[in-house]
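Appendix B. One record, verbatim.
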Amino acid sequence: MMNPSKATHDDSDKTVDQLINKAKELNYDALYVVNVLPKICRRSKDLRMGDFNYDEINWFFISNSMLYSQLIFIGWGIIGQTGLKRQLKTNSSIANYFRLSINKICYYELLVSKNKNKYVPKYYVPHPRPIFGITKYEKSKFISFNSEDFSKLFVY
């Protein structure tokens, strides 16, 4: 996803609860939640693009979780996609983590941004609990990722 909020391994939040429920529904025994940004921040509007600088330790954890996972759900919203685009410019090998796992990746929806700013990506995968529709995806099925999706999300 995008960044950690206040949830911990002992004290969850509603987004993590939703993903735990989805994992149970799919008969998984474990769930790893990793974020493209390691900074803990409760409100995404308090994040700055400088917070999205490439973090080698964070990507070590992301790449390892992707390597050992059976299913990878992505959902980081427009801000997370913008931050990911920034990180891809710094380290293009990030895209390889996703390319190597393309057959395991899924999401709820691939959306087109209405923002005309050239720095904002055209496509993004929404957060699983969007601000203006927090229950929108609770009953939704995952959509499988493909090479066309890859070329939309991992451009920089």
